[in-house]
Amino acid sequence: xxxxxxxxxQYLAIAPFFVLFAVFGxxxxxxxxxxxxxxxxxxxxxxFVGLENFRFLLTDTAFWDAIGNTLIIWVMSTIPMLILxxxxxxxxxxxxxxxGVLRVAYFLPNVTSIVAMSLVFGSFFSxxxxxxxxxxxxxGVDPVQWLSxxxxxxxxxxxxxxxxxxxxxxxxxxxxxxxxxxDVFEAAKLDGAGPVQTFFxxxxxxxxxxLLFSVVMSAIGGLQIFTESQILLGNxxxxxxxxxxxxxxxxxxxxxxxxxxxxxxxAWGIFVVVVLFSILNWRLxxxxxxxxxxxxxxxx
Length: 300
Prior knowledge:
This protein has 300 residues and is mostly helical. 74% of the residues lie in helices and 1% in strands.
């Protein structure tokens, strides 16, 4: 009996975490799965419909359009963002002054209220008095209808994502650059490799795990775009639903149309899409860089 209760203080010490996790983590997930099998508007009694919500989800053109919009915005934002992040990381890794101040400045957009910045960017993208159209007018380009043209809407959302996450990924890539072994770069320099050759044949292969980590995290975050679209365009995603992302479609269905059963099914559909993208990127991460394999073979 004494042995059974000997570790009771330790169990009591860690119990709050598991209780809170069960209440705010496990229970909502299980309840959302149960809710996805119901038809419920939040007021009337639930009606069990089985897998009907999921069957409709597979044929719901609006959901597939939301997936397409999300993927387009993800591609338009992630590729430029990672390129800019790499350039910023390389600049911070070089011998420049005030590195600490620059790191804080680049990371600051990530901790700024996205709702507030969405309102600010909304004024920037104004068709008549926006800053972006003012700059375009200076160089002789006609004003762009940022919040009414479908492709301009996607560009506007992508610019907001780039502005928010470039510094965050730059700090991660900078940490990866600073962890690379210096002897490899010294050997490349002795072999006559220039800066460009060193970057593409040494730096990028060694930095691939960190770079793909940024890609994975960008995929997970990019597939859950919501605030930028909702603040800029409202619940309907703007003209032709060009800004209707998966999460915004879920929010619109569940909390604007009060269709909580189908909204829960959409949430699980988003979960499946995110998991598939994560697995795809994780498989890429598992492939070792060719340069690292050659170095390991040479060391043996």
